[in-house]
Amino acid sequence: AEWKGGKFVLAEGADGSSMTRTIPMSLIKSGEVFVAYGQNGEMLRPEQGYPLRLIVPGIQGVSWVKYLRRIEVGDKPYAAKDEAIHYMDLLPSGQHRQYSGIQECKSVVTTPSGGQVLLDKGFYNITGLAWSGKGKIKKVDVSVDGGRNWRSTRLQGPVMSKALTRFHIAWVWDGKPAIIQSRATDETGFVQPTYQQLRAVRGTRSIYHNNAIQSWLVQENGEVKNVQVS
After folding, report:
1. Can you give the pTM of this predicted structure?
2. Which helix (H) or strand (E) segment is 53 a member of?
3. pLDDT in tens, 158-210
């Protein structure tokens, strides 16, 4: 359907905070946005947003409004409380980057990762997930030395647009400390940034939309811990 003058859609949830988000009409017209009432052959479960949940591929999860109770169409962004106070990026210039919901290219190694323990040196399968709100994942590289050297991983099919993509690579741990990282590239050519690259654009006071490279430190005793490498 067409709404004359309608440029934005307001979606309001029935949760305790009345989570309310502005969705650009351009996304609605893409044909990817829909309202879900079921999953895997059954009705939505309460934790998934029963009875209705908005699905907005490529956009931050908070905009996938749960317990959907109201939809409104307007000609301007609504500046709901969670858009005017939260989920904004404070840039180095002092300006706020607002309505920036697209999930930019990111990846994270899930094994080995923080809290896990490697029992002995030897062969391991490094694996993780990559995604991009702008399309398909093209490749994922992995480093075991804090970003000095990189190797290409194997992507597990099917590789789909705006969907989680699993990657794998073999690694033989020699028992010495290692810093494991993954770096994804999407089909637009965008490369997941380091913290230094991200902060050069977003500053140090931006806590949302962090798509910087994640680092895991493997200690000599096999314990894996969260560390930050600029």
Report:
1. 0.90
2. strand 53-55
3. 999 999 999 999 999 999 999 999 999 999 999 999 999 999 999 988 888 99
